[in-house]
Amino acid sequence: MRIQLLLTGNELMSGDTVDSNSAGIAQQLSRRGLAVYRKVTVGDDAGLLLEQMEAMSRDAEVLIVNGGLGPTVDDLTAAVLARLLGRPLAEHPEALAHLQRWCERRNYPLDQANRKQALLPEGVAIIANASGSAVGFKARRGDCLIYCTPGVPSELFTMLEREILPDLLASFPTIEPVSVTRLRLFGLGESRLQQRINDRFPDWPPALELGFRAGLPLLELKLTSRARADAALHQHWRDVLERDLADYIIGYDDDTLPAAVVRELGRRGARLCTAESCTGGLIAAQLTAVAGASQVFEAGYVAYANHVKTSALGVAAATLEQCGAVSEAVVREMACGALERSRADLAIAVSGIAGPDGGSPERPVGTVWIAWGRRDRLQAREFYLPGGRHLFQSLAAGLALDLIRRELLGIEREPRYFRERAPQRAGSAGQR
Asked: 15, 200, 300, 409 - which has most CB atoms within 10 Å?
């Protein structure tokens, strides 16, 4: 099926707004085995918008128009679609009723500017908007089904999930079902994963497509089959991959490392605390962004300065003087101090050199020590994470969360990153 996207807005063309909507639309379509054939972005120009709507609707089965449904003069989508369809604009009673309810819930007056959002091409069908003031709408032009959607991401993606995608699939019942499995992994890069599959599964069937998407800090491996006849084959090779990559799989679809940790803590009725220096509370922030974290997250301590490591976490001044802040001894004492003060069951402690300054030949920028585990099973490891501050902090947080995930799951095998992220200087301490 040829699906095209048309995005509109001067803010997209100027760079004031980064286009994340088209990526989100493509991802939601991909989960159902559908792909975007073409994408075009234009500014708030009625002539350009009409030109693109006409050309794209002539060349596609589905056209999704995003943006331009608001109450201001530069919101042009409804008027341009009316011109394309050769229909007048008319106040749509269902859209008007939606606007009235939206204003009443917020105690807003329904002014003339807002009322513009109910002026739609005559005869279009309404697409419900669960949270915003502007309804979506759809119409058919020749062989093309046109969906007009709001530019606000939260409104768009809810509308896609609840309204547009079910309608699209019902409108094209002959679409061959596509099976997609999306594995979320931590600790393997794209090239390493591809080589692993090449080496271990040289008989990989051509009917099953493999796709790789690198993100920070996770890697997505996507397995796609495009025919009903391949359902058993898909399930077989999914099982094979899950067994082979079990240590590295943190979840599926949109799962995250913090969510995986919260889930495993919840299953065991355990509580976690964090003691962070170089990550500045990033680990705690990622964990508490997950719904349900209050049941498993006890406390987070950000001890950036050395005297705070001593006063807040009980790290001995002598340890800091003798070993330095970025050391095994210090992260162990940070973890023990956090456990003692919070009464949590497990702890993560991190101290490192994010750069660009502060390094030395013995401890270069990118060095980080991480301690993790329970009081009676506390482990510590040194890693080397070269790169900018953002990359360093993101990777350090990811490593810490994965280490506690492995601890919770009882995974004893060392991950590849113990070797690949080991200190690069001679005589490094390793695990003790």
From this structure: 300
